[in-house]
Design goal:
Elements (H helix, E strand, L loop, with lengths): L1 H22 L1 E7 L17 E5 L8 E6 L8 H8 L12 E4 L17 E5 L24 H14 L7 E7 L1 H8 L1 H7 L5 E7 L14 H13 L7 H4 L10 H4 L7 E4 L5 H8 L6
GO molecular function, one term: pectin acetylesterase activity
EC number: 3.1.1.-
Main location: secreted
């Protein structure tokens, strides 16, 4: 009986893999080299990057911008560990990404957005694109410039056609989902006045809960992230005017002050949050 069920699940998995392979396609990376002059760089000083598939037809002036996820670094040690990986350096990123699902260019797989401009913003700052510290310690050569990176990427997209956007969605998953919340109003402010803008956070609503020992583990981690990256000035003022900046890394303290339409998608039982917040296992 178990063998029959297992065989059925294997068949389903194989079918899904074949389907995914059929609908996916590779998209080249784009480096925002011009951003370097303004100090808008990844942790290692390399230029920001994104992957983009251009829209067509009726979707040519519609934009779906998704921010990549990948956790955070909360001190020099954890940021140095990311510096030599794709989460801290565009030099380490794959030159192509596979686009599928909501990024598919086939109408039957992606009826709503297949002909939109679809952009995946690569994550390389370790603080959901909120940091901005001018000084660079020569001992570490770490650049905490995520907020500049976000603006530089959006400005590059504006120059490539987003200045004519009729509809624009800022989305993201995990740490990218948090970024889509924290930057929702900022994103709207950078676009033309008449653009219809919405934000979508997928698995980006992280809770401020004590762990099983009763310690405020995730609150301490976020406080370290905000302090290390100098994020306070780039968090929504509607929140920082009422409470300490590190608490404004939690969506529940920020969402109510966001003026742009915001949509949240989150599992009732988020496995990452159960492990890393409730059990306090988060380390880097």
């Amino acid at each position: 009986m178990m063998n029959g069920k297992l065989q059925k699940w294997i068949q389903v998995l194989v079918f899904m893999l074949i389907l995914l392979r059929t609908e996916s396609f590779l998209v080249d990376i784009t480096y925002v080299e011009s951003a370097v002059a303004n100090g808008a760089v990844c942790l290692d000083g390399s230029p920001p990057a994104y992957n983009m598939d251009k829209g067509s037809g009726a979707g040519i002036n519609n934009w779906l911008v998704q921010i990549e996820g990948g956790g955070w670094c909360n001190n020099v040690t954890t940021c140095l560990a990311r510096k030599s990986t794709r989460l801290g350096s565009s030099k380490k990123m794959l030159k192509q990404l596979s686009f599928s699902g909501i990024f598919s260019n086939k109408q039957k797989f992606n009826p709503d957005f297949y002909n939109w401009n679809r952009v995946k913003v690569r994550y390389c700052d370790g603080a959901s694109f909120t940091g901005d510290i001018e000084t660079v310690d020569p001992k570490t050569n770490l650049y905490y410039r995520g907020a500049r990176v976000f603006v530089a990427v959006i400005e590059d997209l504006l120059a490539k056609g987003m200045k004519n956007a009729e509809n624009a969605i800022l989305s993201g998953c995990s740490a990218g989902g948090l970024a889509s919340i924290l930057h929702c109003d900022k994103f709207k402010s950078l676009l033309p006045v008449g653009t219809k803008v919405k934000c979508l956070a997928d698995a980006g609503f992280f809770i401020n809960a004590k762990d099983i020992s009763g310690a405020s583990h995730i609150e301490d981690v976020y406080n370290d992230v905000v302090t290390t990256h100098g994020s306070a000035k780039n968090l929504p003022q509607s929140c920082t005017s009422k409470m300490k900046p590190s608490l404004c890394f939690f969506p529940q303290n920020v969402a109510q002050g966001i003026q742009t339409p915001l949509f949240l998608v989150n599992a009732a039982y988020d496995s990452w949050q159960i492990k890393n917040i409730y059990f306090g296992a988060w380390c880097c």
